[in-house]
Amino acid sequence: MDGRRSETTAIDTDGPPDRGLLRGLVTVFLGALIVCSLVLGITLVAPQLVDGIELGSSAEPSPEPPPAGERNPAVTDPSDPGNSSYETDVETVTSSAVEDFVHAEINERRAEHGLEPLEWDGTVASVARAHSYEMAQEDYFAHTNPDGEQPYDRFRSVDDYCRGYGENIARTWVDRRVERSSGDVVRYRTADALATGLVNQWMNSTAHREAILETGETPHWDRAGVGVYIGPDGSVYAGQNFCHER
């Protein structure tokens, strides 16, 4: 008996999580939304905590992350919490390092499909980070916040140079054993491993993948920013916001 929980296959993104499950269940929520006057798709998966399965103790600390770009843009979201972190037995996982790794890996995946790299946009990242923080603090997971603001609304309240806008969001945990929809069991203890896990979640979902690779009805992106918030309990909220400026 390994303590494996039955997999949840449908999640209501509008409902708050059941606090009673947090002692035995970690659910990774995943959603995608393309905002360019039309909502093109939202998808969810829900991997879960697996008890009683050891994943091994060997893990190497993250290499130095490739700097994504400007960390102190002239214009930022007033609700941007800045850097957050969580200490594992391997390293202190910082949100800024995760953001850098995610941005670099997204551009690597795009290059594999003949796409140009996305330029890092510090203001867009600040808006994404503020939304990740708000979701953690207000205990919700959705593209539309409790005030009814959608991704483009949140950006427009800070600046207005993006003609098209999109958002991928994800929720997971650091230093917890989780079983993904594929059946794989993972435990993220480093920033680069967490970043790869987030990118894989998005790339394994059609709507998220379309946003990243500009397929389907997705507009051409020129810029992007990644915003991650890591809570004191190890919860991780992440967003990558896309911008079509030209």
How are the SSEs placed, and which strands pair?
Elements: E1 30-35, E2 48-49, E3 85-87, E4 92-94, H1 95-112, E5 119-120, H2 122-138, H3 151-156, E6 164-173, E7 177-179, E8 185-187, H4 191-203, H5 206-213, E9 223-230, E10 235-244
Parallel strand pairs: 5-9
Antiparallel strand pairs: 1-6, 2-7, 3-4, 6-10, 7-8, 9-10
Helix pairs in contact: 1-4
What does this entry look like structurally?
The protein is α+β, with helices and mostly antiparallel strands. It has a domain at 85-244: Pathogenesis-related Protein p14a (3-Layer(aba) Sandwich), CATH 3.40.33. 25% of the residues lie in helices and 20% in strands. The chain has 5 helices and 10 strands. The protein has helices at 95-112, 122-138, 151-156, 191-203, 206-213, and strands spanning 30-35, 48-49, 85-87, 92-94, 119-120, 164-173, 177-179, 185-187, 223-230, 235-244. It has a 5-stranded mixed β-sheet. A 3-stranded antiparallel β-sheet has the order 2-7-8, with no helix packed on it. The chain has a two-stranded antiparallel ribbon with strand order 3-4. Strand 3 (85-87) and strand 4 (92-94) form a beta hairpin. Helix 1 (95-112) crosses helix 4. The N and C termini lie far apart (57 Å).
